Known about the structure:
This protein has 5 helices and 5 strands.
Amino acid sequence: MLSSLNGKVAIITGANQGLGLKISRKFINAGASVVMCARNGDLLLKAREDLAHELAAGHAIEAVPADVSDPGSVEKLVETTLQRFDRIDILVNNAGIYGPMGPIEAIDWARWVKTIEINLFGSILMCRAVLPVMKKQQRGKIVQLSGGGATNPMPNISAYAVSKAAVVRFAETLAEEVREFNID
C-alpha cells in the first residue's frame, strides 16, 4: 500500500511517550521509516517494540537514545540515521519539558537554564545537524512543535514560555534562510 510518506526517512525527537510516540506511529502508518530518539533509552526501546509490529514491508524503525541539548549526542543521532538510511527527509522537533514551576526568583536556576537548553537549543542543534544533509538533497521538511507558551504569558512556568516563544521565531527565521533549498 502506497502512502503519503512512503520511502521517506524521519527523525522524531522526544519520541518515547506522549505526542512524540503518537507522531511516530502516524509517520509509520503513513509509510515512513522512522528514527525515534529520546533521553530515556529504556522507554525509547519499549516504544520502538510497541511500534515495530505496525511497520510495512521495506520500512524500518530505529531507536537511538539522544539528548537534543548535547551537541555530541545530536551529531551521533544524525550520523546513525545516515549510516542506516543514507538520507533524512523529515525532522520533527518534538522534544521538550515544562521545567521548573514557580515564581522566577524562587525556582531552581539550573533547571530553568536546562529547560532552555532542551526546548530551544535542542531544536536549533537538531536543525543545524540535519540542514547540511537536506541542503545536499535539495529538499526537506522540518516540523517544529511549540506550545501554549508561544502564544500567551504563562506565569510560574517562565522557562517553558520563553523557550517556546523563541522556538517560534527561530522556526520563522530558519524557514526564510532555507527556502532556496526547497526545505520547508
